[in-house]
Amino acid sequence: MSKENILVFCAHSDDQIFGPGGTLAKYAKEGKDIYTYIFSYGQSTHPHLKKEVITKIRVDEAIKADKEIKGKGVRFFGITEGRFIEESIGKNLESEIINIIKRKKPSKIFTHNADEAHGDHRDVNKIVIEAFDKSNSKADLYAFDVWSPVTLAYRKNPKMVVDISKTFKIKLKALKCFKSQIVALITLLGSVYVKAIKHGLLNRHTFAEVFYKIR
Ligand SMILES: [Zn+2]
Fold first, then answer.
1. Which value, to the nearest 10 degrees, does the dihedral of the CA atoms of residues 74, 151, 88, 55 take?
2. What is the pTM of this model?
3. Which residue of 34, 80, 104, 113 has the fewest C-beta atoms within 10 A of its own C-beta?
4. What are the extents of the domains in the chain?
5. 164 CA → ligand 1 middle, Å
6. Where are the beta strands (DSSP E) in the chain?
7. Which of 130, 175, 121 is nearest to 153 (CA)?
């Protein structure tokens, strides 16, 4: 029996944990292979550091966090923040993503929501959906959100609720790998709890993550 593959496409190197981290850890425990693709190194968070220095820090953090959730590895596309659409055209990223989807034959793909506050997140949503549609993949494509308190874009679409009660601790541990993102971490950590508890209460779990089906 071939292994079930799960793909994640996100803008920056902590989104994959902030968004679907608990779910990914759960799938990994179930024996599924998780592959994460990150568009940018996220250098702009530390303008005072040399580009190479912050790049290395963020790559190392992403690898550490991936080990926490027992993922199968992270890959960076090296896109500059704020220039996702132009640069992905320039680098022909669409055909790269189509190839990845065709090669990995995932059962599920996770990416950013369409109405995220962060422009890079919305751009990833657009780029991934376009590539997905051209890939003829049969995978379920799901949206997660990082910054938005409420989701409006896909609220009429089917919803997937994942009970992450058993992996919520792993999600927190993975989040703590992103030491360079301490400000965002503190800002978001509250909402990570609130969301997990809220989705949990609404769906009769202790902690839950909720995703909306895009395709
Ligand atoms: Zn982000």
1. -40
2. 0.93
3. 80
4. 5-213
5. 21
6. 5-10, 33-38, 74-76, 108-112, 140-144, 159-163, 208-213
7. 121
Is residue 149 pLDDT above 70, yes or no? no
Q: Which of 198, 188, 187 has the alpha carbon at shortest distance from 164? A: 198
Which pair of tokens denotes residue 215? 């395709």
What is the average pLDDT value for the chain, to the nearest integer?
A: 91
* CATH number for the domain running over 5-213: 3.40.50.10320
With CA atoms as reference, report the closest residue to 25 among 204, 163, 139: 163
* Centre of ligand 1 from the C-alpha of residue 191, in Å: 15
Measured in Å, residue 32 CA sits from the centre of ligand 1 at 24
Q: How far is the CA of 5 from the centre of ligand 1 (A)?
A: 23
- In this prediction, residue 125 carries a pLDDT of 97
Whole-number Å distance, alpha carbon 14 to ligand 1 midpoint, is: 7
Distance 40 CA to ligand 1 centre (A): 9
pLDDT on residue 1: 58
